[in-house]
Amino acid sequence: MASFRVLCSLALLLLTIPASRAVLDSHYYDQTCPQAEAIISQTVRNASIYDPKVPARLLRMFFHDCFIRGCDASILLDTTPGNQAEKDGPPNVSVRSFYVIDDAKAKLEMACPQMVSCADVIAIAARDVVAMSGGPSWNVLKGRKDGTVSKASDTINLPAPSFNVSQLIQSFAKRGLGVKDLVALSGGHTLGFSHCSSFQKRLRNFSSMHDIDPTMNLQLADALRKICPKGNTNPSAGTFLDSTSSIFDNEYFRQLTQGKGVFGSDQVLFIDDRTKSIVEAFAKDQSLFFGEFAASMVKLGNVGVIEKGEVRLKCHSAN
């Protein structure tokens, strides 16, 4: 048993993303590419008008990038012979809208060649989709470099929709993020959509005692059972994670207080004493949530930032 605990401790240590030693600066491109943010913002806005799913997808892209190897744009790299990349790992197969980042990067290369990293493009785009959806804005710290390593096998370290609060706290702590960051960043699900595969275990044969997850609102469970019938084979079937899916607001937290969290990892935030009071505070005060979300996004954007990397010429491949 002792040797097993040692092995588990070593595994956890290896999965921890080191704190960034790179110094980021909100004015990083003021001299070298002053139009960088305007180019990215306009590209993101145009894409969002064309496809309303873009905001949720780009926000999720930022989370999934930073949670693996740190914010180094490794999620953008394509699979190559002999190496399956992050974007093709099971948790990321539904991440979309990579073309938006590619479009922004192509325009940046024309305006200021070899200056703006793909990692910074993702971070700025994530801020912009939140702001344009009615949420808060913040000064994005910039100066990240792009990584050259991307492995699908690493995506197993992403928080799962079935995680309990202890598992979530542990996962966030490995990235230097606290309990308040966990709850605030979970609020990003206000723009989210999920396929049936991520929550259907809550709807049938949940446990030996309950057919449906007892923490789920019964009306919601009934509606989701219709969307995701037994034996469902439609890979596109699913639901939005709150009732105002195109608006960044605190509706997600209000729904948690009613048992209407779609993911088990969402609803447990209102069940566990370590997180319940924060959920309640955000449900009552949208301004409080906005402030904490912006602060947590800045912290997340500093996870695992590398000092020595490259500025990719094309985001989907290393130079």
Automatic annotation (TrEMBL):
<dbReference type="InterPro" id="IPR033905">
    <property type="entry name" value="Secretory_peroxidase"/>
</dbReference>
<feature type="binding site">
    <location>
        <position position="190"/>
    </location>
    <ligand>
        <name>Ca(2+) 2</name>
    </ligand>
</feature>
<feature type="disulfide bond">
    <location>
        <begin position="196"/>
        <end position="228"/>
    </location>
</feature>
<feature type="domain" description="Plant heme peroxidase family profile">
    <location>
        <begin position="23"/>
        <end position="319"/>
    </location>
</feature>
<feature type="binding site">
    <location>
        <position position="74"/>
    </location>
    <ligand>
        <name>Ca(2+) 1</name>
    </ligand>
</feature>
<feature type="binding site">
    <location>
        <position position="70"/>
    </location>
    <ligand>
        <name>Ca(2+) 1</name>
    </ligand>
</feature>
<feature type="disulfide bond">
    <location>
        <begin position="66"/>
        <end position="71"/>
    </location>
</feature>
<keyword id="KW-0376">Hydrogen peroxide</keyword>
<keyword id="KW-1015">Disulfide bond</keyword>
<dbReference type="GO" id="GO:0042744">
    <property type="term" value="P:hydrogen peroxide catabolic process"/>
</dbReference>
<feature type="site" description="Transition state stabilizer">
    <location>
        <position position="60"/>
    </location>
</feature>
<feature type="disulfide bond">
    <location>
        <begin position="33"/>
        <end position="112"/>
    </location>
</feature>
<dbReference type="InterPro" id="IPR010255">
    <property type="entry name" value="Haem_peroxidase_sf"/>
</dbReference>
<dbReference type="InterPro" id="IPR000823">
    <property type="entry name" value="Peroxidase_pln"/>
</dbReference>
<keyword id="KW-0349">Heme</keyword>
<feature type="binding site">
    <location>
        <position position="242"/>
    </location>
    <ligand>
        <name>Ca(2+) 2</name>
    </ligand>
</feature>
<feature type="binding site">
    <location>
        <position position="65"/>
    </location>
    <ligand>
        <name>Ca(2+) 1</name>
    </ligand>
</feature>
<keyword id="KW-0964">Secreted</keyword>
<keyword id="KW-0325">Glycoprotein</keyword>
<comment type="similarity">
    <text>Belongs to the peroxidase family. Ascorbate peroxidase subfamily.</text>
</comment>
<feature type="binding site">
    <location>
        <position position="249"/>
    </location>
    <ligand>
        <name>Ca(2+) 2</name>
    </ligand>
</feature>
<feature type="binding site">
    <location>
        <position position="159"/>
    </location>
    <ligand>
        <name>substrate</name>
    </ligand>
</feature>
<dbReference type="GO" id="GO:0006979">
    <property type="term" value="P:response to oxidative stress"/>
</dbReference>
<feature type="signal peptide">
    <location>
        <begin position="1"/>
        <end position="22"/>
    </location>
</feature>
<comment type="function">
    <text>Removal of H(2)O(2), oxidation of toxic reductants, biosynthesis and degradation of lignin, suberization, auxin catabolism, response to environmental stresses such as wounding, pathogen attack and oxidative stress. These functions might be dependent on each isozyme/isoform in each plant tissue.</text>
</comment>
<dbReference type="GO" id="GO:0140825">
    <property type="term" value="F:lactoperoxidase activity"/>
</dbReference>
<keyword id="KW-0732">Signal</keyword>
<dbReference type="InterPro" id="IPR019793">
    <property type="entry name" value="Peroxidases_heam-ligand_BS"/>
</dbReference>
<dbReference type="GO" id="GO:0046872">
    <property type="term" value="F:metal ion binding"/>
</dbReference>
<feature type="active site" description="Proton acceptor">
    <location>
        <position position="64"/>
    </location>
</feature>
<keyword id="KW-0408">Iron</keyword>
<dbReference type="Pfam" id="PF00141">
    <property type="entry name" value="peroxidase"/>
</dbReference>
<dbReference type="InterPro" id="IPR002016">
    <property type="entry name" value="Haem_peroxidase"/>
</dbReference>
<protein>
    <recommendedName>
        <fullName>Peroxidase</fullName>
        <ecNumber>1.11.1.7</ecNumber>
    </recommendedName>
</protein>
<comment type="similarity">
    <text>Belongs to the peroxidase family. Classical plant (class III) peroxidase subfamily.</text>
</comment>
<keyword id="KW-0106">Calcium</keyword>
<keyword id="KW-0479">Metal-binding</keyword>
<feature type="binding site">
    <location>
        <position position="72"/>
    </location>
    <ligand>
        <name>Ca(2+) 1</name>
    </ligand>
</feature>
<feature type="disulfide bond">
    <location>
        <begin position="118"/>
        <end position="315"/>
    </location>
</feature>
<feature type="binding site">
    <location>
        <position position="86"/>
    </location>
    <ligand>
        <name>Ca(2+) 1</name>
    </ligand>
</feature>
<dbReference type="GO" id="GO:0020037">
    <property type="term" value="F:heme binding"/>
</dbReference>
<feature type="binding site" description="axial binding residue">
    <location>
        <position position="189"/>
    </location>
    <ligand>
        <name>heme b</name>
    </ligand>
</feature>
